[in-house]
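Lab manual, section 2.4: Encoding a predicted structure.

Procedure: take the sequence of the chain (279 residues), apply the prediction step described in section 2.3, and record the output as structure tokens. A sample record is shown.
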Amino acid sequence: MQIKLLKIFLIMFLLSLFYSSVLLAQTPDSGTETALIVTGILTAFFVIIIFFVIFVLEGNIEPIVTLFHAAWAYVVPQSTEKAIQMDEDFDGITELDNRIPPWFNYLFGATIIFAVVYMISYHVLKTSPLPHDEFSDELASADLMRRVRMASEGEINEDKLVALKDDASLKEGMEKFKKNCVSCHGSEGGGIVGPNLADQHWIHGGSVKNIFATIKNGVPEKGMISWKLVFTPKEIQQIASYILTLQGTNPPGGKPPEGNLWVEPIIEESDSVKIAVKS
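Recorded output:
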């Protein structure tokens, strides 16, 4: 029996070596590399077993068989099991040395198997992406979708940016504002952590261009992130246009004014324009 098992180990070891040599003779690709890693793990496993049997147990595999039977008997429920009573007695209460329940052993074994599979899948073979890699892939995918949307919307000249007035654009801006901005500015723009957007005072300017730039670049020192990786320029223009509609609404519970009173600058006409108008 012992010689038969030893022969089986040797045959499996030789087969793994032959399989490795065949793979090495092929053109390397991702599938071949994975197979080589698996073969290497199996080969190392068989080598350890063979050396253990030959040099440690001196060819006697009976201790391994005994250990296997003991583990099997420990996991499988025993119908005739008797609880061992301990020598402790306190106020007539005794303690029994019961065996660990089989379901707990199954659960413990399952966690070991899961840990091994997880390690091989995520760290050895790398067939499953780690959370950091998944996050990077999602960022790349989101950036690609954003670029596609930007290409479909066309370019926006920020120097000639104007506030949108149509209902569709203002509705889009309102929906994005209420979804992404209410945690800091409130549902009606009265301000919570961020400033009040419904009064006439502005920290970074109150024109559509100023609001567009603030949303686009963020205010890192105040904790406001840059939204240019989330929204396209068209969407930022829609949000900025909606924010301007909040002026003078005076929502209940709004924060006190912050910044400076904003007055829209008057653009003086050039001499050429004045001459053209007079003529």
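Check your result against the sample. The longest helix spans residues 30-56.
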